[in-house]
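Handoff note, outgoing to incoming analyst
You'll be picking up this chain. Sequence as last confirmed:
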Amino acid sequence: MQPVECGMCGNRVLVEKYSPTHISTQWLDDATTACAEFRRLSAAGTPIDRLRSCGALDASIDTAVVEGRITESHRTVPVSGSTHEVRAYT
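Most recent structure output, in case you need it:
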């Protein structure tokens, strides 16, 4: 996973890009305290479980991809009943 910093609030997350459309994000701190957008939405009464993403962080991740700071990585997973590995491109 590669670190990305939000251009708006400076929150840092770890990102893994598996395909053009699949990106995994791991928050290093609690999102409702680390992210300005999550704090604002939470304070306005939006249930935390409905907050899936932060627009500013998404834009920062997209910029990191375009600039080549985040590159696509391919996972290998074992195939059941086999000793061979296959690459998963999901």
